[in-house]
Write a structure and sequence with these properties.
two-stranded parallel sheet; about 40% helix; globular
Amino acid sequence: MKFYWIKTHFLIKKIFSGFVWDLPNKEKKVYLTFDDGPTPEITEWTLSQLKQYDAKATFFCIGENIQKHPEIFNKVMNEGHSIGNHTFNHLKGWETKTEDYIQNFKQCEIEILKQSKISNPSKLFRPPYGKIKFAQSKILKKMGYKIIMWDVLSADFDNNISPEKCLENVITNVTSGSVIIFHDSVKASKNLEYALPKTLAFLKEKGYKCEAI
């Protein structure tokens, strides 16, 4: 059975203080993030849900998926959401040579620049699986990137949990400043389609504002 923190423990945040785990504030702002897209239908559905609640989010995109679905990628940008790098092939940093990892990261960066046509996009990176070597993170930070982790894990990717549990993971742990992670992927779609609309409704009811990083 896999173990993962639903609410990231403060000791983890302290040990890895060079990463962004949350963005504390007194204005009840929270930060929805979506990994692994763009994915046909699922990313577009996600955008429609966000639009209903006037919510902005950050999408950590896989370069290969941007290459395959540039029209969906551009729709994400055109609707005012932030974009982050999630490597070109969803690499696990712990199992990849640093040189290869950085090269794969750069492939994704090139694809983002090519498709976005923006000369200076936001420099945000999320390591797939949350796994990255110190040497890899050091290079990325030298390049001006912020490594964005998360404060609240929905676990929508876990097919062993129910959609109701996925929702509970979020709404019982969110606080002002939380960075919440969902996935706009096929694997996560069942849990996402249940939990996201209810999460957005809950956040609105409680007075939270969803902003892009």
